[in-house]
Amino acid sequence: MTATDTVARAAATAGLPQPYAELGLTAEEYARIADTLGRRPTGAELALYSVMWSEHCSYKSSKVHLRQFAAKAPPSGALLAGIGHNAGVVDIGQGYAVTFKIESHNHPSYVEPHQGAATGVGGIVRDILAMGARPVAVMDALRFGPASAPDTARVLPGVVSGISFYGNCLGLPNIGGELDFDPSYAGNPLVNALCVGVMRHGDLQVASASGPGNKVILFGSATGPDGVGGASVLASATFGDGAAGAASASGAGDAAKRPSVQVGDPFLEKLLVECCLELFAGGLVTGIQDLGAAGVACATTELAAAGTGGMLVRLDAVPLRDATLGPPEILMSESQERMMAVVEPGHVDEFLAVCAKWDVRAAVIGEVTDTGRLVMTWHGETVVDIPPASAADGPVYDRPLARPASQDALAAGDPAALPRPAGGAGLRADLLALLGSPGLADKSWVTGQYDRYVRGDTVLAMPEDGGLLRVDEATGLGIALATDGNGRYCRLDPYLGTQLALSEAYRNVAATGARPLAVTNCLNFGSPEDPAVMWQFAEAVRGLADGCAVLGVPVTGGNVSFYNQTGTAAIHPTPVIGVLGVHDDVRRRVGIGFPAAVDGTHESPAGILLLGRTEPEFGGSAWAHVRHGHLGGRPPAPGLEAERRLAALLAEAAADGLLAAAHDLSDGGLAVALAESCLRGGVGCTVALPGDPFTWLFSESAGRAVVAVRPGAEAAFGRLAAAHGVPRAAIGAVGGDSLTVTGCFTIPLAELAAVHARTLPALFG
Amino acid sequence: MRLAGAEPVALWHGDRDLRGVDAVILPGGFSYGDYLRCGAIARFAPVMGELVPAARSGLPVLGICNGFQILCEAHLLPGALTRNAGLKFITRDLRLRVENAQTAWTRAYSSGEQIVVPLKSGEGAYAADPGTLADLEASGQVVIRYDGDNPNGSAAAIAGVCNAAGNVVGLMPHPEHAVDPLTGPSADGLGFFLSVAARVPEGDRA
User: Which CATH superfamily hosts domain B24-204?
Assistant: First the structure.
């Protein structure tokens, strides 16, 4: 564009064709913009609306459903800030508050795995920072296509190295997450990053521009052409049928989207974190917003819309990495490691001095006004003049939804008809097959590339059920976190599947001895324009809202990722649910590893109990998936009341010091849980099953955990379990160097370990 | 250092000032991002202008991970750290052997003692020319060695070395992550900090 497209020029050239469709806007949306402004938008305004009204930023297809999270929220005294903020804030007691959130970076991670995943970490960390908290840990929930597929070998190592590169350099421990494989994620890997931060009550920051005359400061990285249109053309559109990335790197198609992926500088992010915390502590910040999707466009409109209502921005004052950028590119750029603050004029010098101390570039680019208009100039000419709420609020769609006919056929495919293993040898072979399958194998190839220790407060990390961090060294106060999702269960029934994901994360947090407090979510789905996908989404949201109401844990925030599909084939609906819990004393934490020796003695081996009720439930199970490639029937029935009782029992038993180990049962059932607890503890066990061995070993009934009770605490634990109404079965004891199921099979620990450990290194080197 | 009974004092990279401390620890991290070679820029930090002569005059200095890399770049320690064999970042709890229990930072151990301490690094493979390696072995400057598993391809399984005087020690594993079994695999790493705290005159300690 040679001449600047000013507001005056726009008013004078009404019929000028504009590339709204290329920017992802519909004809109706374009007309609505013109109607709001009373003229055609300028190029800069069109850019701003296109990213703000993208699905990724506006939640235009999901909003009508997400309202249930607030409407059905259980009463909770723990919530200090809820949905609508950058992240929810939860009171954990002793004057501390915690904020946490999980977000997708799926499409960038497919196009450019290393930088896509790296900047996913960076983005969620800034969300947490913007709340006023010090980020203290990250987690990642990852899902890929078949483990043996060539494209998985391209995407997975890059994603892992990106998370490792960014998180390790930033100095945040990675304390857990997920790794799974399924053909439905081929071409649409899911890279969901979680961050958690800690602050004192009263440190909470607001994302609003109030006080006319206050200055608007952009600080952090200079703005470059990276990530222009990331929110719109990349995150809010379906990939074509052609393979992206390496397979077509030299061609057109999705590889052409690579410039939409941002490039990360984790050391600058570290400086930005320390700089912001010093600015907050100095009381120098009136309002703050991180720059993520939609960059300057989003930060200015959201700050203005949430504040006094007006802002004047000089776009030519934005520090640039590329001097050829014009207003539309500056507005849409998703250059990383940037924040925007609203600062009282009297604090500006001090603010800039703190930035200088941390080698963080900062520039005053505008000020708050009382005009009710967001006005932007470019070398003296007005290029944007809009009511900010019109961009920040965006359209709302109640899209058509329809339960697809294929659901009935799926439900009819009952796994009860599948051939079952014959005798002890068959059960043994099935356990080893599950344990060596990519989704259940030892994840050390991945997690060994992440720093779990940095900051020195990590009490539990993967492969434990949940991550556990110490918050206060003197009192032992801590927080536990887990994320879970199960695309297979959700494909069979998105309502129940989402409740099962919630239940599992809730149970994982409880297994460490923590009390679950709050929920975040990352909802990964196909195209919202497909009524079948929209039905899946609506069911999942309803299931989560209803589930949270029963469990008494509110949803504090989350993220929606649509358009996870290639052509017409959508991914399995995959809500990933994160649960945060509070641990009153992390010194009483409980791990999954069976105790080789309790309190240094070998006198009395710890007894093993199975808690909860086991039913023959195999729909969507790991056994059906791994042994038969089968997906059908009904998922296990979530028992939310039973889940709540189990969690209360686990937390109380941990606080009383009754447990030597606790491990939740999920994929692969009791068989896989026992093997994992043996391997983690480096000790065997012998169990006798009270019923049909196949059902007891491989059923995935919800609401169950296996525990090793401290010798001498059996009676006390029994009374506690009875008081909480949790069914329990004494199935055996810890000891020896093999996993033995009496009457069925014995597997030496060395064999278990070898089968468990070899899979991922064999696949990924 | 606090757990070892000493008073920690933060030093700023941009200040030419050691603030009168009795010993210095260069911690792990990614100094200036380490986008060039690890520690290559940090060796030019203003504070290093004070640290290098002080170390040559006997000030106890411990470099952990990135700190070790910086000490090598600053030529306070021989050799260099290169990309791990396998080219991946490694976080792993490892068994180490204390080869030299005479240095300022290892006196609390006994020679040959085995300890378990986490390693977490991407460029931790110790490298030096054969002559330097022979000199290090002969003079007892190999302080810490990987015991059994050599995780990153370090020459002679070297995890840490010291200067000839024994006051400057660098190692890739992180003893500060092994000071409490609650947050690490052991409390075996505390000995590094106890060693130097015991050297500091009683009257100087907080």
Answer: Class I glutamine amidotransferase (GATase) domain (3.40.50.880)
